[in-house]
Each structure stands twice: as C-alpha cells, then as structure tokens.
Give the backbone structure.
Amino acid sequence: MGKFEYIRLLFDKFLDHSINRQELYDLLNYIRQNKSESEVKEWMDTHWNQIKELDFELDYGDNSERRFIHLMNKIKLKEDQVILVRKRSQVINGFKNFAFAASFLVLISFLTFQVSNYLFNFSTVPNYDQAEFAINFEGKQFVHLPDGSTLIMNDGSTLSYKSSFGNLNREVQFTGEGFFDIAHDPSRPFIVHTGDVKTTVLGTAFNVSAYEGQSDVVVTVARGKVSVGDQNKEYEKIMPNEQLIVKKENGRFEKAEVDLDKALEWKNQFIIFDGMKISDAIVVLSKRFNVEIKIENEQIRQCEINANFMKGESLDQILRVFCGVLQAETISKDNIITIKGGRPCN
C-alpha cells in the first residue's frame, strides 16, 4: 500500500470511527504538511454530506474554497494561526494558508466533539497493511509529536521521522535550531539525529542548534540529563545549564556552563499557549505587554486554549484572535483591557 492509499484509508476509517490511536496520529501529522492541502480539499468535497451531518455549527457553501473561506470568516482566524478552546486534549498547529487551516480545524473539531471518547479509550489495535513513510516539518512552527513530546522550530529548521514513530522507538532527523520538550518514557529513549551526532534522552528539555553549513552541533540542556555521541560512542552527558559543542568535521567536543536565558533567547520571542487555561494565558499576555487585562465572564476562565503566535504579533492582534474564537469582545478604559462576554467551553 502506497502513502496516498494509506492516507485515504485513514480518512475512511476516521469517518466510520474505526481509526485507532496510531492511525489517528499518522493522519493528523499528514494533515499538518502543506503538501497535503489538495488531498484534504478533495476529501472534504467527497465527504461533505457526511461532514455537515455532524453537530458542528457551520454554514455550507457549494464548493470547498467557499466553505473554507466562510469558516475562516466565521471564527475570525488569521493566516498562520489556528486556535481552539476546549476542556479535552487536542493537537493543533499553524498552517500557511487559510483553506488548509480551516480544513484542519474542521477535522480536529470532529475528532474533539464527535469521536474523542472512542479514540482515546480503545484497548486493542487492529493489524493492517501499513506502508512506512516519512512525516516532515519545516520552518518556524510548534510541533506536537505522537508520543506527547513537543518541539519549537526556528526559521530554516527541518524535522523528519518515520510513520512508525513511537511503536518501538522514538527517533527523529533534525537540522536547524529547535527546543525539544520530551515526554518521559524509560522503555523508549528519544533520539535526535543531526548528521553524525546523536542526542539521546528519556524525558527532558533541551535545545539543539545544527543548521546545515554550521560547523558545530550545539546541545544545551534546560531540564533533565542528555547523552550526546555518535553511532559508535558517547561523547559526554550534560545536565541543566550545560552545553556541549561538537565539531562536525572531526567529532571533537567541548562542554561548558551557559546562561540558559541567553542560550534560549531565540524562542522567548514566541508566544505559545499549549493547553493553557484562559486565565493563565491572560497573565502571560499581561506580563509580556505590561498591561492589565481582566476577564469579566468567570465561565471562560477555566477553558483551555491552544494558540501559536510566532511572528511578532501585537497584543491587539492576539486579543482579536482570542475574542473571535471565544465570541467575546474587549473594552479598553483607564489603561485596563476587559474581555467581556464569551461562550463557555463545556
């Protein structure tokens, strides 16, 4: 079975609620890739009658472009931003155009509100003919991996892993700069390959800088313990606030203590809400923009939110996205911003 046939199979299994956890992760990871846009549109057109019967508040047009544009206008999403408010766990990411973001939001919404109870409580995984293929990401974005780990990718970065990731092992290929926050799993070490250099962890947070053309691979640890080496040997173990610099040319390395805030300064410009309560997200924004923000409706304070702002968005832009999804509004008076109204998330 080829890659395209496998993805079509997953779409069909998604519709009839027979999809299992690994298949779901494969489908979501495929949807995140920009190249999948045309396939997503085709599937949406083919299955629109089934989709619109689900309990999801949409107005339906007569073609995929109009449906996607209408959906974007309805929830007031902006380019490169996808945001959801919910109580349950969801996977979300940024996308490069409106139509793809909308189609992904529709799929995630179906998953969250229609089939999540089934998907996340199954006990057996059926066998099927699954082809091995690569899942790829590139550029500045926030990535959820199937094992629960996350990665913040800087400009010019690439990530690749096999579709079987997490079954027996957790290995990825990476170039560029990224901050990994790894879910703990003693039985399956997480391995990051950057050329000949291999970084191995069980559950930790660390930064990797390994752009193509860069003479060094630089690994910096924020939490936990990290082993750095190659295919034949371990170079060194490093701890929090330590950094290992490995020469690509000859494998020579040097360990040093570092100022963690300075080493990770590149990612601090991003605002990432990964399952954060609205009340906590408002605290983050208040501190970032040095302004007082209040929430009038107590019913939305405990709602959780996923949103990535990685392009230097202003507070006004961020709050417009918040309010568009919450169906709320902001009022500014005496240097205080108040969020009024909003729908409860449960």
In short: Residues 243 and 249 are 19 Å apart (CA to CA). The domain at 270-341 is CATH 3.55.50.30 (Phage tail protein beta-alpha-beta fold).
